[in-house]
Every structure is written in structure tokens, then in C-alpha cells.
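Appendix B, example 12.
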Amino acid sequence: MGITDWPAAERPRERLLAQGPQALADAELLAICLRTGIAGKSAVELARDLLNQFGSVRVLLASSARELAAHRGLGNAKSAQLLASVELARRSLREELEAGDALASPQAVRDYLRLILARSDREVFVALMLDAQHRVTATEELFHGTLTQTSVYPREVVKCALRHNAAALIFAHNHPSGVAEPSHADELLTRSLKSALALVDVQVLDHFIVAGGRTLSFAERGLL
């Protein structure tokens, strides 16, 4: 039975409009993004299958176009719809961070970092450049690969901060292993960057580790 044959009060789109998106289950929200199902399966049933196959919403939405399109029921059109939804969410969070004090929106910072780092299968080191009012003015992807004191060069980070006329920075990198705990190298690197930037009067506000759906804050851990 197609969704159009369901009672109006049970259809995901109608329920969202009447009760708000928070009232819907993950599969129902995903079904709205997919718009249609496939032969023998409604959009909701297809959404449930996809969530089972990928394991979680996070993994599904962090997948590439090729990975999405490889699954039955997700062709290029549906894959594009999902990727567009993720990109809109990323841009919305970016606008929020550009408009106000990033320190006043810690959850928005975490959500934004998860969206830009969660899909990478290798370690990526990024820096958010902030002005004197702690508004994000730029996001720079600085280094790739295993992060050590020798692979992330403080001099290059300082040059980047000065180029953007940044008053403060927030660092972040991902742990593809899924373990959010900082390594000794992570702590040494953070201290080294903080010392180098202090010489040019640029403050380091935080360093986040993104691991799957988790984020760890060095500031909250007292590691800055």
C-alpha cells in the first residue's frame, strides 16, 4: 500500500505539517526527503530498509553520492536529494555561526563540525577563524593524514590566522576510528599551536575531536 492510501492523519508529510518535524520518527523524516518509494515498498518502508542497511541516520547522511546510489532504491535523483538536505543543514549552521558569538552557540559549533568532518575516512584538521566578536569568518581545512606535532605546522597555522585577520581560532579534527579520546600527540599539538598563536595575539578558544556522532571539547576537559 502506498502512502497516498494511508489515512491522512498517518501520512508523514501531513503529520509534519500538523505536529512539527520533531513528532516524526527517523524513517518518516527520511521518507519525506526521498519523496517516493520503489516497486513493492512505500517511501517509509524504503527509508526503514536504508536505515537498517547503513546502521544509523548519521552514517547514511555522511555517505558519498556513490555510496548512496549503490543501494537499491537510491538512484542518482534520491541520492542528490539527500546530499542537498545535508548541505542545506551545513550552510544553515554556518550562517548561525557567522551571525553571532560562536561561544554562545556551542551546540551549533559541534553540529557544524560533525557535518564537515564526519564523512571523512582519514584524519582532517580544520580551523574556524573568528573575529573579535567570536563570529566565524572562515573555515580552513589545513592538513590531512595522521596528526602529529610534525605534520601540523604551527607556522602555517599562524600564517593562515593572520591572512584572515582572525582574533581567535577553534580547531577540530576527526578520529575515523570512532574513539573520541585525545591522544598524547593531540594534546602536545594543541599546546604547541596555542603557544605559537599567542605570539601574534590570537586566542585558541577550543579544539574539538569528532568521532562518529561524538564530539570532545578540549576546553571542557581542561586541556587548553
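The two ends are 57 Å apart (CA to CA). The chain has a mean pLDDT of 85.
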